[in-house]
Specification:
heterodimer, A: 232 residues, elongated, B: 218 residues, 0% strand
């Protein structure tokens, strides 16, 4: 079957059948992508909060170490980071299976970006707030937890969550070390059926739906967590 | 047969960085042209220009760059055209950069005070002159820092072209690693070279941002 369109002969036959025959594989892959994303968000945030606190108020060696971590990660491609973790770390005796290596790389990566964002939030808190908290007899931990972190989180929430959506999209790169995420499921189906364009078209749409889903989820969390009036 | 990592391997990787730079330059230039068009369409009064531009940006910001590369690379088969990895990467990264620069620049244009648009309109300037002499120069000032910041993201993004087989810095690293099995040295060197390309730009972006925030503080 061929059709004439604007002078170009379109002889290619779209064949979506192999994509939908293997749709369960795609769904399994999407599940891994979601798990990797949530895992990296949680672990990355756990790294970012102490790093940000250390970078804005820690002693000089801590500040220097955190800066080195943040700059090294933010100025090199994620692909190279994951190659380093997957191929070079085994030389140190640390052999990770692909999915664990993927989670590790994503966590280290998003931790660095989130550190910068959280630090900007912490530094947006006015000194008077901290002094008022101390004057009220709150401990250092309490001041950090209630006076600094929570309002800071509210300020940076949009920046942080768009970084998380970007993380979900970046996670497609882990398919190169044969992790079992959505993009990797595509690679498998593609190599078996040769319907590369159709496979990746469907997968791209699935990523698009995932990014819509994540952004919907993040805005309902925002409404639930930060639905109180702003103090002036 | 395992080769050892010597001067040849070192220079092979270092020289491959020129392809990373070339691909970044092509994508940035193309992306600047496309981005300007997207930004202008995004703020247009005509819905027929505005909505497609919004859709374009949403689509490219909501899907992975890797999938965009694959779709361009395999998409040419549909028209029975075989596309080199270099061509596919250049096209995909240009489309990608157009969306991101378009969105960044839209924000910068909209940050120009509305009175500037109105005054230039009241003076009887045509659309081209209004944009060329009044709005865009003021928007450009705000745009420099985030644009340099995006350039860093774009340089890192070119590493994905290695996956469709374009031999740039990352692919050169993989090739050498396959021959020498010295992943520590190889990927350490590759990472260092990316760092040398990106870090000065990151510092520049931060510096410009600080200078701008001082200039606009009231």
């Amino acid at each position: 079957m061929s059709s004439e369109r604007g002078g170009t002969k379109l002889e290619y036959q779209f064949n979506f059948a192999p994509v939908f025959e293997n749709f369960d594989q795609l769904l399994m892959g999407a599940l891994v992508t979601i798990e990797l994303t949530f895992g990296a968000i949680i672990l990355g945030t756990l790294i970012a909060i102490p790093c940000a606190a250390g970078k804005s108020a820690g002693p000089r060696p801590v500040r220097w170490l955190v800066s080195a971590y943040v700059e090294a990660i933010r100025n090199t491609p994620f692909l190279v980071q994951i190659f380093f973790i997957f191929f070079a770390l085994p030389r140190l005796g640390l052999r990770l299976d692909p999915n664990t290596a993927a989670l590790t790389a994503l966590t280290i990566n998003v931790g660095a970006y989130a550190t910068e964002i959280v630090r900007a939030g912490i530094e947006s808190i006015q000194r008077g707030q901290v002094e008022a908290g101390t004057a009220l007899g709150l401990s250092r931990i309490q001041v950090f937890r209630y006076i600094i972190l929570k309002p800071a989180m509210r300020t940076i929430y949009p920046a942080l969550t768009s970084q998380f959506i970007y993380l979900m999209l970046t996670s497609s790169v882990v398919s190169v070390i044969s992790a079992t995420d959505l993009a990797a499921a595509g690679n498998t189906i593609q190599s078996e059926t040769f319907a590369a364009f159709e496979v990746y078209l469907v997968i791209t749409l699935m990523y698009f739906l995932l990014s819509l889903g994540f952004s919907g989820l993040f805005s309902s969390i925002q409404r639930a967590l930060f639905n109180y009036p702003l103090a002036r | 047969m395992i080769r050892s990592f010597g001067a040849n391997e070192f220079w092979f990787i270092v020289l491959a960085a020129q392809w990373t730079v070339a691909l970044s330059a092509v994508a940035f230039t193309g992306g600047a042209l496309g981005g300007l068009a997207i930004a202008l369409a995004r703020i247009s009064q005509t819905a027929l220009l505005r909505y497609p531009a919004i859709g374009y940006v949403r689509l490219f910001q909501g899907t992975p760059l890797l999938m965009q590369l694959f779709l361009v690379f395999f998409g040419f088969n549909i028209f029975n055209v075989s596309m080199s990895p270099w061509g596919a990467a250049a096209i995909a990264l240009t489309l990608h950069a157009s969306a991101f620069l378009g969105e960044i620049w839209r924000g910068c244009i909209q940050a120009v005070p509305g009175g500037q648009f109105e005054a230039s309109w009241a003076l009887g300037l045509k659309y081209y002159d209004r944009m060329r002499y009044v709005v865009l120069p003021q928007a450009a000032k705000i745009a420099v820092a985030p644009t340099v910041g995006f350039l860093v993201q774009l340089i890192k993004g070119t590493s994905l072209a290695s996956i469709i087989g374009f031999v740039e810095l990352t692919r050169a690293g993989q090739i050498v690693n396959n021959a020498t099995f010295a992943p520590f040295t190889v990927f350490g060197l590759v990472a260092a070279l990316y760092f040398i390309l990106c870090w000065p730009l990151s510092l520049l972006a931060r510096n410009l941002e600080q200078r701008f925030s001082v200039a606009t503080r009231r």
